[in-house]
Amino acid sequence: MDFADLRSKWDLVTGEAQKKWGKLTDDDLQQIEGDREKLIAKLEERYHLSRAEAEKEIDAWLMDTNL
Question: pLDDT tens digit string along 38-52?
Fold first, then answer.
């Protein structure tokens, strides 16, 4: 799945995102709305990751997400 697909299916994958990143709140997930930049920013904030680390985690997650 790529990020364009994710945006259109965000409501379906928020549960998977919360399983992967448990520190993301329901409010965080609503604010992200499937936007890659917003997800990167939240991962940087909640997990104290660098941008590169957050991008790497997102890319790996997308490869594992089968919708």
Answer: 999 999 999 999 999
Q: Distance between CA 30 and CA 50 in Å, rounded?
A: 22
Q: How many angstroms separate the CA atoms of 50 and 19, rounded?
A: 21
Determine which helix (DSSP H) or strand (DSSP E) holds 57, and give its type and residue range: helix 51-64
Residue spans per domain, the chain: 3-64
Q: Can you give the pTM of this predicted structure?
A: 0.89
DSSP 21-52: -TT--HHHHHHHTT-HHHHHHHHHHHH---HH
Fold of 3-64: Protein Yjbj; Chain: A; (1.10.1470)
